[in-house]
Amino acid sequence: MNITADTNVLLRAVVGDDEEQQRLALEALETADRVAVTSQSLCEFAWILARGYRASRADIAAAIRRLLDIHNISVDRPAAEAGLAVLEAGGDFADGVIAHDGRWLGGETFVSFDVQAVRLLDRDGLKARLLSVA
Fold this sequence. Notes:
Blueprint: E1 2-4, H1 7-15, H2 19-31, E2 34-36, H3 39-51, H4 57-68, E3 73-74, H5 77-88, H6 93-104, E4 110-112, H7 115-123, E5 128-130
């Protein structure tokens, strides 16, 4: 069976704060022929780990990499790697994914009010522009 894993399934598998749900999540992930993990789920996963569990960026990156290493996971790897690059540089995982998806959809320049996101993307050689009120 091919499945799409909701963010809560990914969290239960990784965090393990509910033993029964962790067992069910791991069983679903391990027995599926393919597990589709959307970029949206990875963004939500990173956000919940950061805000809800107060996980460090390094721990969040490690958790995402563990998910990406599962043999039957199907994910937009370039988007995930873009998110990880921004996360590991000190920004938000979602900003990297958004910038990546925007480029894929034809956007040439990432625009934001987020100073840090613009700085990190610009530093990596990506076109990014800060919107600011004069």
